[in-house]
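Lab notebook: predicted structure, single chain.

Context: the supervisor wants predicted structures on file for every construct in the current expression panel, including those that have not yet been purified. This is the next one on the list. No modifications to the sequence; it matches the entry in the shared construct table.
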Amino acid sequence: MATVYHINKGINKPITFKGLKAQYIAYLAVGLVLLLILFAVLYICGLSMYIILPVIGGSGTTLSIAVIRLSHRFGEHGLSKHFAKKQLPRGIRFRSRRIFIHLSKQL
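Prediction complete. Output recorded below exactly as produced.
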């Protein structure tokens, strides 16, 4: 009897769910869990459902639109690259050459 093996053709491809790529799935999941906790807190505090539902619904819609935009704009690793690029200085200024002169004498 021959054994049939299925080849996984998704190797080295980013995880994708409904257009969201890689870490953006986690960002959306964490945001939705926080909205669920906010809903529970507001409900326990005794606010009316007519106030809670539009607030949570609007926040959820805004969250999902923002995460989808980030996913499409930056891609899989683009957001971390964007934040890393912001950490780089625009330029380095040296007011004297003393540091380089002492460097060559130490070697």
